[in-house]
Amino acid sequence: MTGTIRVLVADDQRVVREGLASLLRLLAGVEVVGTAADGNEALAMAIQLQPDVVLMDLRMPHSDGVETTRRLRDYDGSIKVLVLTTYADDRSVIDALRAGARGYLTKDAGAAQIRDALHQVTSGQPAIDPAVQQHLLDIITATRASPPGGLA
After folding, report:
1. pTM above 0.70, yes or no
2. How far apart, in whole angstroms, are the C-alpha atoms of residue 36 and residue 74?
3. How many CB atoms lie within 10 A of CB 48?
4. How far apart are CA 12 and CA 142, in angstroms?
């Protein structure tokens, strides 16, 4: 994707939401089109504003990030979701990706990593935090089914 990436920030913590919006406004080629304080507001604003990407927290009131991602995907699959959250546990990552998130970053991410992830998801590529990638790989390799008959 070329041009400006239009982003909606969804996070229930005001200081995080405003801080992210301020950070994103400093990035060339990124336009913050709105901020939402909960999942229901994020969905309504995404429908109205048609951002390229929703930067979505997972733990929010009224409709969490996973449910909001699922509802947004069902409404308009062209709007990409990039999760930005504190949580990197198995269930959170898997649920978010299954719901339709195209990227998953932890709040340890810096401006350059967020910028790169925005470009990746708008280009149709996944964007997964390296620590989360390793965690997913560990989950997959640890839970592989044994070959039929129990042979190794």
Report:
1. yes
2. 19
3. 11
4. 34
User: Do the beta carbons of residue 121 and residue 102 sit within 8 Å?
Assistant: yes
- 126-143 pLDDT per residue, tens: 999 887 887 778 777 876
Do residues 41 and 16 touch, judged by C-beta distance below 8 A?
A: no
Read off the tokens for 71. Answer: 């509802």
**Distance between CA 106 and CA 41 in Å, rounded?**
22
> Which residue type sits at 26?
L
Burial of 145 from C-beta contacts in 10 A (0-12 / 13-18 / 19+): exposed
pLDDT digits (tens, 9 = 90+) for 107-118: 899 999 999 999
Backbone angles phi, psi at 122, to 5 degrees: -75, -15
Q: Is pLDDT of 151 > 70? A: no
**What does the CA dihedral 25, 126, 44, 18 come to, rounded to 10 degrees?**
-30
Chain position carrying tokens 């089914």: 145
Distance CA 105, CA 84 (A): 5
Bridge partners (DSSP) of residue 139 are: none
